[in-house]
Every structure is written in C-alpha cells, then in structure tokens.
Amino acid sequence: MPTLLTVLASPRGDYSISRALTSSFVEEWKKNHDRGAVITRDLYQTNLPFVDLPWIAGAYTPAEQHSPEMQAALEVSNELIGELKQADDIVIGTPMYNFSIPAILKAWIDHVVRINETFTASYEGLLKGKKVTIILASGGVYAPGSQMESYNSESAYLKQILGFIGLTDVNIVLAGGTSGVDMGKTAREDLIAEFTPAVTAAAK
Ligand SMILES: Cc1cc2nc3c(=O)[nH]c(=O)nc-3n(C[C@H](O)[C@H](O)[C@H](O)COP(=O)(O)O)c2cc1C
Q1: Domain total of the chain
Q2: Which domain, by its residues, includes 108?
Q3: Does the beta carbon of 119 sit less than 6 angstroms from any atom of ligand 1?
Q4: What pLDDT, on a 0 to 100 scale, did the predictor assign at position 35?
Q5: Exposure pattern of 133-157 as b/e (b: 16+ CB <10 Å)?
Q6: Residue 85: CATH number of its domain
Q7: What is the atom index within ligand 1 of the atom nearest the CA of 141?
Q8: Which atom of ligand 1 lies nearest, measured to the CA of 140?
Q9: pLDDT, average across residues 165-185
Q10: Which tens digits make up the pLDDT trace of 12-37?
C-alpha cells in the first residue's frame, strides 16, 4: 500500500497558504494512489523538544545500552523517523520565516537526521527511493529570475539536508506572494489557483 507522509509547519491554521495547498496535494495524491495511506504529522500538534544531552548521548550509544533517560529523549525521534521510513512519498508544507525554515521544522529535522538511522557514519543517506514535494509559502516572491531569488535560503537548505539522509528526489513548489492576501490586495482563491496546477502535477 503506497503511503504519503504529510508534514505541516505553519501555525496559521485556516489562514495558512501552505496548509491549503498541501491539502490539495493530499486530495490529488489520494486520487492517484488507490488505497494509499496518509500519515499526517502536524508539527504544531506535536511535542517537539530540542535535541538535548540525553538525546545526543542516546544517538551515539547502542540501543541495548540506553539509559531510561536516553530512551525517553529518543522517543519522539524514533516515532518521526518511523513515519519517514514508512512513507513512499513525502509532502512538506512550510512557510518561509526570515528567508529560511521555521524553527519548528528545524526541530523536526534535528530529530530525523540521526546517525545509523537515516545516515551512516560515512555519510551515506539511508532513506532511498522516496519522492519529496515541498510547498513553500512566502510573503515575497523568490521565483527564478526574480529580484529576491538569492534571499531564499530555505530551498537550498532543505534540498541539502534531505539529500544528506538520502532524499534526493525533491520538488519545490514556491508559493510566493502571500503578503498580497494578508494586505487585502490579492484574493486568497486567486493566489491558491495560481499554484494549484504545480501542486496537482507534483502529486502524480
Ligand atoms: C516570523 C515570520 C517571518 C517571516 N519571514 C518572511 C521572509 O523572510 N520572507 C518572506 O517572503 N515572508 C516572510 N514571512 C511571511 C510568510 O512567509 C507568509 O505569511 C507565508 O504565507 C506563511 O506561510 P503560511 O501561509 O502557510 O502560514 C514571515 C512571516 C512570519 C510570521
């Protein structure tokens, strides 16, 4: 059974453009994957502690030697990595914050990039053969050739870190210009309609 993992990183609920476009992606993916299963990981509904000393010690200690403290620290990480391993396709709906990823998405990354789980000591990525779509909502426009393109540190970073754990098939839908909606200059439906074809195509 094909499985899609959906990771949501916007706190804006019904106002969120990345969540709206990611929902369209999921609906289209379900149409294209008969009997497919969807795992939803809403980062704002997840208790995501930052990596701490017991986490680090646990990650570098064989599982059979884990103290109860290390086990507890790695619990969330184990769950999140389990979801990634189970998935055939992954969609990440995320805002741009300060030209980069939101801190909550970085916290997720810090839990899933883990030695001997998603990469080896010789830096080989272990999550192979999965397709990733990133739906990146931003107030400004960072499309190729645009004036602000070089300010977008988020796309390059996400490609780099996902590639490091073996996820090299990454397609990014840049949903730029959401500030127009917030300022009442662009209709929300029009902005969503602008990016829906790219989202639909990515969900094949
Ligand atoms: C803390 C914060 C920082 C932001 N930084 C940027 C930025 O650097 N560049 C940009 O174009 N938009 C920025 N924005 C606007 C968001 O990217 C925009 O509102 C986007 O639509 C958020 O995604 P969402 O609609 O899925 O919530 C920022 C918004 C917030 C709240």
Answers
A1: 1
A2: 3-202
A3: no
A4: 87
A5: bbbbbbbbbbeeeeeeeeebebbee
A6: 3.40.50.360
A7: 11
A8: 11
A9: 98
A10: 999 999 999 999 999 999 999 998 99
